[in-house]
Amino acid sequence: MQIDPQTLDSTAVYKLLISSVVPRPIAWVSSLDTAGVGNLAPFSYFMAITAEPPTIAFACSPREGAKKDTLRNVEAAGEFVVNVVDDERAEQMNLSSGDYAPDVDEFVLTGLTAAPSVKVKPPRVAEAPISMECTVGRILPVGKAHLVLGEIVQWHVRDDIYDAATGRLDMHRLRPVGRLTGNLYSHIHQIFEMKRPSASYRG
Ligand SMILES: Cc1cc2nc3c(=O)[nH]c(=O)nc-3n(C[C@H](O)[C@H](O)[C@H](O)COP(=O)(O)O)c2cc1C
Description:
Elements: H1 10-20, E1 27-32, E2 38-43, E3 46-51, E4 54-60, H2 69-77, E5 79-84, H3 90-95, H4 106-110, E6 114-115, E7 124-125, E8 130-142, E9 145-157, E10 162-163, E11 168-169, H5 171-174, E12 177-179, E13 185-187
Antiparallel strand pairs: 1-2, 1-5, 3-4, 4-9, 5-8, 6-7, 8-9, 10-11, 12-13
This protein binds flavin mononucleotide.
């Protein structure tokens, strides 16, 4: 089957796109509005870009033509935190994705703990296995969406998943959740190893 996206409406293209790029990691983004109200929402248009400097990006689509709270907050404050969603927090992540008014603090709504960050004002999710404090590098308009690039200025990693000997995080203990399509998600429980052909690979 051949599919030309220009022959489809935007919903059909969206369904095809989010079914084709899977599984996607989830950036559970915490931010603060100008009045100091906390905000928390998941974004699976999310990727790591480079380690020098450590940079991640997520994309925020409009809601009924308007910017979502997260985008408005990161534009105004220039700071946010990306928290990692594990199996245990999947339900609370989903709850935090509702269309709530800007004055609703999703930390309170979900019963999660807003722990102070070290280098940025928005709090992190204390229950998350990994949190990355970010400063906004650039915000690029892409079609109707905005791509937010953030430089990681501070990491928080749960002690039991950090392997000091290798500098890696333990994938078996982390148990991250991946987004598939629609309401489908994946657990990462079957992990396999494959050596790279190039001896120079530093990973
Ligand atoms: C798993 C998951 C992934 C999502 N990914 C995105 C995304 O990449 N971009 C986006 O604009 N909305 C995404 N959403 C929807 C937002 O989380 C939702 O619109 C939320 O209400 C935005 O909150 P805010 O207005 O507080 O920023 C996703 C929702 C879920 C459940």
